[in-house]
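Q: what sequence does this backbone want?
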């Protein structure tokens, strides 16, 4: 079955950085558009970034563009999200997702990112 296992979250001070990882299995990773989505307590999930199967074309939510970078290694079935200049508004549970912004599916437990001084 499809599995997406996220890791790399934690507590970081404002202005800090984190790198999230997602290990995929159970499907042909290289054939799928992949995304990162996040959900803050009491809020609806929001799409953050997406990357085409080729790894070349990336899209970002406006508030993270220039700070976050999505990347993938199709030989390792792994997706990453490099997050720089983090601020408290980035606090959320982050999920790796299969699919683009308007049609994604999450399969894992996510990883918690908390930005606080």
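A:
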């Amino acid at each position: 079955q499809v599995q997406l296992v996220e890791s790399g979250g934690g507590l970081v001070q404002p202005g800090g950085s984190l790198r999230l990882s997602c290990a995929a299995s159970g499907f042909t990773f290289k054939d799928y558009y992949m995304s990162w989505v996040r959900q803050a307590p009491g809020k609806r999930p929001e799409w953050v970034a997406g990357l085409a199967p080729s790894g070349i074309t990336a899209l970002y939510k406006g508030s993270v563009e220039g700070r976050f970078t999505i990347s993938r290694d199709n030989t390792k079935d792994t997706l990453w999200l490099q997050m720089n200049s983090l601020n408290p508004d980035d606090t959320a549970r982050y999920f790796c997702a299969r699919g683009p912004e308007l049609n994604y599916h999450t399969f894992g437990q996510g990883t918690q990112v908390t930005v606080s001084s």
